[in-house]
């Protein structure tokens, strides 16, 4: 039997506050992954400062390109394509990765692949297990909260979206009220496990006949509760506050996603994005799916691959490579790229 040739992709991710490179074999195997985080530089501002992010990306990108190749024990001759996140994200931050990838493509003659960041988050699942299609993903991060239907590895359709804040953004905003450093999600998640859901915060849009979300009402209810307590010099239990907030977020996410799974009957369910690291959400989704008569396979990506990283971009790029979807040197950063990108760019 003829042995298929391995496909090795060097991938770049620089859409926000992590600069990352990776070498991925056949879209499934991580040969190297380097993540240079800038979180400490942004913490004192309480969020990501775009200019600071771009500067850090420039400082490390050449070095971590070399590190990704050396950690994978490969040279440029062993690479088949160069992939990069081209959107969505911070425009200045994206441009650093896109420029580095274009320069590498021009210098080596290797093909270039532009990858949607959200497609990347979802494809972190492919680094753990085989995705069977059609698949359905709950993609929850600092910038996005979406239910995505995938008929194959490159065609995605958003069937539910947030009307206001993303789930991760809500975690970060209420974290600030509790004095937790940015990004607050992980700490709030840990606190939630030590408290009880005693505040009964609102669960928005549960009755609506769609797959959309809203988190701004919950965020406001949380902030009002804390401010009111402050005014009357009452101390609230931070663990109960965290548990109550998390219960409201997880209830809504799980309820709408399970409804979508029942309606669309996917073969695989994927949790993706930074908030996919949330223990409460992981346990709840796995538990609810277990109760279904018609259960999809569940893929919860590895914790270290939930946040931004280039391995997920390399995994998604492999699928585009197989479909012959290459970019040329006109590839540009698109800060507000949306997943129908799959429709417009891929046809
Ligand atoms: O995917 P990501 O790294 O960046 C974006 O593309 O936005 O997601 C970052 C977000 C932050 O809002 C962070 O607070 C949240 O993911 N996050 C969590 C957890 N770990 C990270 N939220 C809830 N629970 C966690 N364990
Ligand atoms: Zn992300």
Automatic annotation (TrEMBL):
Q: What is its EC number?
A: 2.3.1.234
**Localization terms from the record:** Cytoplasm
**Mind telling me which GO cellular component terms the entry cites?**
cytoplasm
Gene3D superfamilies reported for this sequence? 3.30.420.40
Which InterPro entries has this protein been placed in? ATPase_NBD, Gcp-like_dom, KAE1/TsaD, TsaD
Q: Which Pfam families match?
A: TsaD (PF00814)
Q: Which residues are in the Gcp-like domain?
A: 32-314
Q: How is the cofactor bound?
A: Binds 1 Fe(2+) ion per subunit.
Q: What does this protein do?
A: Required for the formation of a threonylcarbamoyl group on adenosine at position 37 (t(6)A37) in tRNAs that read codons beginning with adenine. Is involved in the transfer of the threonylcarbamoyl moiety of threonylcarbamoyl-AMP (TC-AMP) to the N6 group of A37, together with TsaE and TsaB. TsaD likely plays a direct catalytic role in this reaction.
HAMAP family according to UniProt: TsaD
**What's this protein's family per the entry?**
Belongs to the KAE1 / TsaD family.
Q: What is this protein called?
A: tRNA N6-adenosine threonylcarbamoyltransferase
- Biological source species: Lactobacillus gigeriorum DSM 23908 = CRBIP 24.85
């Amino acid at each position: 039997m003829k042995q298929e040739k391995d496909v090795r992709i060097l991938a770049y991710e620089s859409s926000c506050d992590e600069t990352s490179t990776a070498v991925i074999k056949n879209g499934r195997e991580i040969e190297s992954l380097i993540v240079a985080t800038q979180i400490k530089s942004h913490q004192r501002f309480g969020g990501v400062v775009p200019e600071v992010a771009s500067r850090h990306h420039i400082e490390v990108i050449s070095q971590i390109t070399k590190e990704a190749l050396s950690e994978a024990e490969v040279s440029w001759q062993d690479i088949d394509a160069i992939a990069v996140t081209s959107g969505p994200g911070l425009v200045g931050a994206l441009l650093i990765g896109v420029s580095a990838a274009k320069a590498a493509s021009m210098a080596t003659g290797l093909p270039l692949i532009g990858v949607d960041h959200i497609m990347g988050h979802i494809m972190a699942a492919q680094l753990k297990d085989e995705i069977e299609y059609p698949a359905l993903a709950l993609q929850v991060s600092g910038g996005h909260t979406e239910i995505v239907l995938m008929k194959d590895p490159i065609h995605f359709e958003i069937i539910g979206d947030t009307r206001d804040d993303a789930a991760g953004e809500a975690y970060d905003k209420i974290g600030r009220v509790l004095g937790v450093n940015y990004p607050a999600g992980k700490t709030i998640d840990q606190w939630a496990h030590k408290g009880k859901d005693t505040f009964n915060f609102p669960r928005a849009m549960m009755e609506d006949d769609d797959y959309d979300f809203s988190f701004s009402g919950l965020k406001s209810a949380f902030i009002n509760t804390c401010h009111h307590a402050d005014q009357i010099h009452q101390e609230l239990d931070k663990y109960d506050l965290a548990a109550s907030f998390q219960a409201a977020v997880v209830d809504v996410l799980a309820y709408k996603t399970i409804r979508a799974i029942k309606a669309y009957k996917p073969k695989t369910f994927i949790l993706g994005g930074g908030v996919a690291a949330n223990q409460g959400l992981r346990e709840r989704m796995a538990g609810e799916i277990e109760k279904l008569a018609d259960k999809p396979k569940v893929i919860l990506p590895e914790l270290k691959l939930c946040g931004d990283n280039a391995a997920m971009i390399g995994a998604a790029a492999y699928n585009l490579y197989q479909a012959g979807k290459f970019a040329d040197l006109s590839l540009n950063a698109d800060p507000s790229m949306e997943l129908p990108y799959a429709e417009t760019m891929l046809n």
